[in-house]
Design goal:
With 213 residues, this protein is mostly beta strands. The protein contains two helices and 20 strands. The radius of gyration is 33 Å and the shape is elongated. The mean pLDDT is 86. This is VWFC domain-containing protein.
């Protein structure tokens, strides 16, 4: 003012709200901490927060409970899951890269690991296959549990007539000839519980693996 005094308006100031460490303006709405209700900052400017009181339903997976709005571990390891307000687990539907199984061990695409022969190296491919180098490795029939030699005399192999049945494949090297089982087969299976194994499938695909009963 011209006389040097200061004049101010006398409008009542409204106060916002703080909820969950965040500030909100009067009248603003935001999710409640339970993940299913909605809260509102008092429009009158009192600073109070009012929330709906809908009964929220939790979710359960593998015997573990999750609150509504909480993340839930996905079963495939690559998608994202959340427990919704209705008690349902909702997940994204991203196509997961297919892994590989070799020697009874699971690998992700791009992983490298030793081949069963001990000297080559294998890689898990994007399509779930296994690609291995093909170095000429020394052989030892007594230690190659995944193979069964029909003859350990390479000279006789051209004269022997035999077939590799089921999931077996023919093998011929400097040690002789015979059959080898699927490289995904582990050295042994724990089948002490009757329902733990499909014995017929194991014996067809992995006949050289040990079965513990």
């Amino acid at each position: 003012m011209e006389d040097g005094n200061v004049a101010c308006t006398l409008v009542a100031c409204t106060s916002g709200c703080t909820y969950g460490g965040l500030d909100y303006l009067p009248g603003a709405s935001f999710p409640a901490s339970d993940g299913c209700n909605t809260c509102t900052c008092d429009p009158s400017g009192s600073g109070n927060v009012g929330c709906t009181k809908i009964a929220c339903h939790g979710c359960e997976r593998d015997g573990i409970g999750y609150a509504a709005g909480a993340p839930v571990p996905p079963g495939d390891g690559c998608n994202t899951c959340t427990c919704n307000a209705g008690g349902e687990i909702v997940c994204t539907d991203v196509a997961c890269p297919e892994g590989c199984t070799y020697g009874g061990v699971e690998y992700m695409p791009g992983d490298s690991f030793p081949a069963l022969d001990g000297c080559n190296t294998c890689t898990c491919t994007a399509g779930g296959g296994v690609a291995c180098t093909e170095r000429d490795c020394g052989c030892d029939p007594s230690s190659e549990w995944w193979r069964q030699y029909v003859s350990t005399n390479p000279g006789e192999c051209a004269l022997i007539d035999f077939a590799c049945t089921g999931g077996l494949t023919y093998v011929l090297n400097e040690c002789g000839c015979g059959c080898e089982q699927d490289p995904s087969c582990p050295p042994s299976f724990d089948c002490k519980s009757p329902e733990a194994c499909d014995l017929e499938e194991i014996q067809r695909r992995c006949p050289y693996s040990t079965i513990h009963r």
